[in-house]
Predict the structure.
Amino acid sequence: MVNTIDFDPDIRRVAHLMADAARAVILPYFRALDLIADNKLGAGFDPVTEADRAAERAMREVLARERPADGILGEEYGAQPGTSGLTWVLDPIDGTRGFLSGTPTWGVLIAVSDAAGPFYGIIDQPYIGERFEGAPDGARLTGPHGEKPLRTRAPRDLRQAIVFTTFPEVGTSQEGAAFRAVASQALLTRYGMDCYAYALVAAGQIDLVIEAGLNAYDIQAPIAVVQAAGGIVTDWQGNPVHEGGCAVAAANAEIHAQALALLSTC
């Protein structure tokens, strides 16, 4: 994993160029009354819009110009190999269902990974104007109220914790039951925040995000942001989760351990 001394500041520069480019193409679509969504699934609903596609194209154009040797993995346009050993992992709109609904809880996800996993990430919410960044030299939020460092919440018992997930079902019936075992002991459980929930962990507002059925592009940027702010992100057995699957993002080691003790299925 990249440490502070070895961290290339050009990664930060390019990541912000990409996030700016994605913002510019996405915002004209948000809350547009004529927005059209295509369904990726034959059964069920997994929407994609031209905003998703345009944002990923814009980010890929920045990479082609600024860092052509790096690889890319994106939700809409797949994998493009590189030669540098680094891969940019992109989700142009994480939370397209929320985007379609007009809720400002979706975000642009940008991560940079090496062989050990993600070491830099951005969760960007263009409409609110908040950008959560995690890097080897720390985590920070820039937004309407300026810039400040990010730090996760102090340890507390699960009975005093706030838990988030996106879908009430939380994957399969077994996975949902495991989630409910945690949620039933927590102080408060909330739903539907997509990537913004991970940003709230990093910002010290909540204690846990628990999800299932994730892809690499869903979780790599949140991993980098949450861990840079002092949190922990693993699968439900405590192993690396940067390839996706069942994830738990915790504010600290103590609440992480309490959650893992109840998350027995995935």
